[in-house]
Design goal:
Blueprint (H helix, E strand, L loop, with lengths): L1 H22 L4 E2 L2 E3 L3 E15 L3 E20 L3 E12 L14 E17 L2 E13 L10 H4 L20 E12 L4 E9 L9 E9 L5 E10 L17 E3 L16 E2 L6 E2 L15 H18 L6 E3 L4 E11 H5 L10 E9 L17 E6 L8 E8 L9 H4 L27 E12 L2 E9 L23 E10 L1
Antiparallel strand pairs: 1-2, 2-4, 3-4, 3-22, 4-5, 5-6, 6-7, 7-8, 8-9, 9-10, 10-11, 11-16, 12-15, 13-14, 16-17, 17-18, 18-19, 19-20, 20-21, 21-22
Amino acid sequence: MKNITNQHVKRTLFGLCAAALLAAPAMTHADWVMQPKHYGGSLDIGQVKEGYSAAQLENFPITRTAVHLGISAVHDDKLELRLTLGGLYWFAATTETGAEYRLIKFGNGLGEAQGIYSFGAPGNPHSRLQFGFFPVKYGDSHNLGEYLFRSGTYPGTLVTGGWSYLQSASYGALGVRYILPTFNDKVTHEFTLFSDRDWEPLHDLSPGYMVTARPNSFLEIGGGAVWAHALPARPYRVSPKVMANAYSKTTGMPVAGLDTAGVLAVLPGNDTLWGACLNPDPAGQAGCNDPDNARARQTIADWQDCKSGDCSDIGYYTFRGFKAMLRASVDLGVLIDNPRIAPGDFKIYAEGALLGFENQPYYYDDRMERMPLMGGINVPTFGILDRLSAEVEYRKSRFPNSIFGVQQGNAVPVSSQASTRGGYQYLDGEDQYPWKWSLYARKSVLQGVNVHAQVASDHMRHPDFWGVMSDEAITQEKKDWYYVFRVDFNL
């Protein structure tokens, strides 16, 4: 009953807000000037050609239909308020055959609910303050990248898309953002304070800073840093003092886990440690050897001492840490100065990030594994298309790009029981396929009507029947990819 009631309340509120937007006249109220309302919708049709989730997905159809409507108002040319509501019809990404899994699902939510205050003379502000819920995008990418805000720290989880497959390389921020242009807009500073709203631990405040330099018409350089979970809403959630989040300071190994040699293991949801290599007679047990056996025994001994009251040899992984980003773009079309190539049509861009400055034992002992690199290019088509873009990403890591551990409240990159690598795995030392790629195209066919297409092997997660995104990306291996077409309109 609770879920049904909540859904009823959400839909009622959504309906009331939508009615208010539709009824709001485009006219002046005292000092408020209402802007024209905007409406839109889109239809996505595509297919996961090769992919994986809770069950193998091959030639799996993906369809979504979205609608949105919004309104804005300006007060005294200083304060602008914006509100956009949206709704989405979708099907669960599952191979289940029950009738309930074939039901079309509907979800509603905010596209934005923000205020923008301009400091200085009306029409010529010297800085701006954004507050509320609003999209943030700092780079040129269409799918990959944008690591600073939409990636984790410990673990450095990478994501793309979400509820939208296309043109979604941005972050839905909840908080405040102060934008300060300097040197005649050649250098722009941005100060942010956002609430963590995607994964555990939720509601923490993370301050950040970005700077963008535009020394000339064709070059842009940017960088930034975020102190993730710096101001926790619940401090005990930042570094949980539980077995699944613990490691031995003596051995540098997690207390709970299973490595490739089967050295140390823990039953899911159980506080009882076990492992084949702990057997005094490991004969016939593949992968077991005396050094591993001794390391496992010491790790367990340290944890048992902690359970008895002496935790001096036990540490705990933390979500808190610094992450940073550097990016650059060069508009080759401006350099060439060809009248048939518009600004932005022929541009190369790149971004790199370090997701967590400080090392932590085992999972985070190699900074190179926490450094995703992305490069892209907009290819000129001389009017045939409005945009044609190709992007590629590289990050080599031993551990899966999974949010399973995060969803359990622990700062560890662990797989679920449905992992393609088999079993409930913590110490998964198997190298993951490091490359991701994406191709994107867009064409305006009528005023306000556009056609989009995307082919990619990225970090897209898909919702199940309950609307919960999968722990791991649908496209994980070299062979995995999907395509999607979209038709949208905006009035």
